[in-house]
């Protein structure tokens, strides 16, 4: 069974992430959307809130599950018999950042390949911080996040 992981801080999950997760599910037998800690970021949503939002967003998508982990991604990958780390690439700056992480993860967990999926052009400018900012000022985020979590995000961030 080929198992992949889509790691990120998902603060909150966006349509851009959803696109990558759905396309990963076409390629692998099981895809875990993994809420991991980025020590350089201070998140607004707690890990539990982020997992709950993701679980709602991916409900009904076959082969996709949600998990959370605090530690090195490479440790999770090794412990869970994962063969691929799937990341979305929106721009050349994403690639520079991801390339460095991919090399580090390859050294720490040679059992897994990092697989890059290019973002859908429609979602190239979307990011979690953009959504947080729009919602914080009372804007409409329904074009940027899955419909089932729009209300929850707007209520929480207003
Ligand atoms: N569509 C839309 N937005 C996307 C996107 C896509 N396809 N891909 C990424 N983004 C956005 C995210 O929303 C996020 O936006 P923000 O900065 O406004 O919050 C930004 O791009 C970066 O996202 P991501 O690539 O998920 O990076 P991250 O910093 O959130 O997550 C981790 C990086 C958590 C995967 C990484 O730090 C990690 O692996 N941590 C665990 C510890 C570890 O192993 N460290 C060593 C790594 S070698």
What's the short version?
The protein has 158 residues and is an alpha/beta fold. The protein is 44% helix and 20% strand.
Radius of gyration: 15 Å
Distance between the termini: 43 Å
Principal-axes shape call: globular
> What is the tally of helical segments?
6
Strands, total number = 5
Q: What name goes with the CATH superfamily?
A: HUPs
Spans where pLDDT lies below 50 across 5 or more residues: none
Bound molecules: coenzyme A
CATH architecture: 3-Layer(aba) Sandwich
Beta-strand content estimate: 15-25%
Please give the largest β-sheet.
5 strands, parallel
Secondary-structure element pattern, one letter each: EHEHEHEHEHH
Report the helical percentage: 40-55%
CATH class: Alpha Beta
With strands numbered from the N-terminus, the spatial order across the biggest sheet is: 3-2-1-4-5
Class derived from helix and strand content: alpha/beta
Rounded mean pLDDT is 96
Q: What is the CATH topology descriptor?
A: Rossmann fold
User: How many structural domains does the protein architecture include?
Assistant: 1
Task: Walk me through what this model shows.
The longest helix has 17 residues, at 92-108. The chain is built from 6 helices and 5 strands; from the N terminus they run βαβαβαβαβαα. The protein is 44% helix and 20% strand. It has a single domain (3-122), classed as HUPs (Rossmann fold), CATH 3.40.50.620. The mean pLDDT is 96. A 5-stranded parallel β-sheet has the order 3-2-1-4-5, sandwiched between helices. It has 158 residues and is α/β, with parallel strands linked by helices. It has helices spanning 15-27, 47-58, 73-79, 92-108, 128-136, 147-157; strands spanning 3-8, 30-36, 64-69, 84-89, 113-118. The radius of gyration is 15 Å and the shape is globular. The site of coenzyme A has 26 residues, from strand 1, helix 1, helix 3, helix 4 and helix 5. Coenzyme A is lined by residues 7-9, 11, 14, 16-17, 20, 36-38, 41, 72-74, 88, 90, 101, 104-105, 119, 123, 126-129.
């Amino acid at each position: 069974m080929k198992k992949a992981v889509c790691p990120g801080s998902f603060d909150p999950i966006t349509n851009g992430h959803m696109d990558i997760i759905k396309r990963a599910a076409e390629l692998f037998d099981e895809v875990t959307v993994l809420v991991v800690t980025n020590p350089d970021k201070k998140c607004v949503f707690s890990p539990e809130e982020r997992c709950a939002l993701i679980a709602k967003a991916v409900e009904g998508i076959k082969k996709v599950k949600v998990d959370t982990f605090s530690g090195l991604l490479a440790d999770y990958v090794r412990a869970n018999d994962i063969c691929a780390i799937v990341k979305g690439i929106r721009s050349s700056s994403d690639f520079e950042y991801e390339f460095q992480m991919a090399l580090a993860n390859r050294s720490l967990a040679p059992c897994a390949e990092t697989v890059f999926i290019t973002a859908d052009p429609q979602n190239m400018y979307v990011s979690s911080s953009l959504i947080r900012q729009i919602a914080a000022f009372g804007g409409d985020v329904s074009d940027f996040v899955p419909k089932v979590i729009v209300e929850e995000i707007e209520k929480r961030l207003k």
